[in-house]
Amino acid sequence: MKLFVFGSSLTSSYWNGAATYYRGIYRNLAELGFQITFAEPDAYGRQQHRDEEDFSYAEVLVYDSPHDIPALIEQACDADLVIKHSGVGVDDALLERRVLECQSPTTQVVFWDVDAPATLASVAANVLHPFRALIPEYDYVFTYGGGPPVVEHYEALGARACYPIYNALDPKTHYPVTPDARRACDLAFVGNRLPDRERRVEEFFLAAAEQAPEFQFALGGEGWGGKPLPGNVRWIGHVGTGDHNVVNCSARIVLNLNRESMAQVGYSPPTRVFEAAGAGACVITDYWEGIDTFFEPGCQILVARNAGDIVDLLRTVDVRLAREMGEAMRRRALLEHTYALRALQVREILSQSRADVFAWRKREMQETA
Fold first, then answer.
1. Which domains can be identified in the chain, with CATH numbers?
2. What is the pTM of this model?
């Protein structure tokens, strides 16, 4: 099956939190025999900050938007499945409308949402939002998180079929490595500075650092330069995907903080949770509904509701216990939460639903004739 994909970037993780997800999904779909073409715009300096990885499993097309979009749409129409990811970052509304032109007796179109809480909040805030009317037109909606609440919301907006395809672990790229003494710390958090994340970083991470001056904290990600930080917090800048393993393995504990919208909706483990699991790191996460769907709290993952909880855990979970919990989390991830399994899920959905999609499209054409 030929897939034509519009996404933010497969080749660069620079200001692009979806990169790991894209790579895990499409690498493993390629291994199942799918032919992948991935179109990404030349934007936000990503092409100047490409990651040094092997992307040969996909044909990557870097385009100038909106100039190149008509030709790309024409090319996409030759695929069996056209995928428009949310958050491409350039001319999203145009792409969301134009990809539907590819629907035909041989081509299906998917909207694959990599930030469903934000998308749905935007649609809810504006009854005239242009994407609202398009939702029922897509053959499928996939989401990388959100669970039952997101599925119900999309179905209420007219989605024909909505399936969560969760983040996961790719053991080929995230695995234990030798710790780097230069990156050693008690707690590490890596995430770009975004409006609905910054307040949670302040409330959880920075507040914990202020309450526990005896510990060392490392903050990674773009945008934090110039922000006042406690003296025991070291900003380490952009952390490329090639450095995620060493950062995760060098910290005693790794912190996950969901963005505000994802924490409220729940069922949205971000890529950093599974990357840390692959490295065998001990993880503290902020609380959100559905954690126990993925890992067992207290045994495979630690849960904090505030900065005080984080400080308590730092003071009680020593290196030995942290290592044991990290290994337990890694075993669970390898058993139940790999991108190989997610790719099989996608293939099964498409194989079971493809005939149904074309059947209802034929009925609609007959009814409107």
1. 2-168+340-368 (3.40.50.2000), 181-336 (3.40.50.2000)
2. 0.90
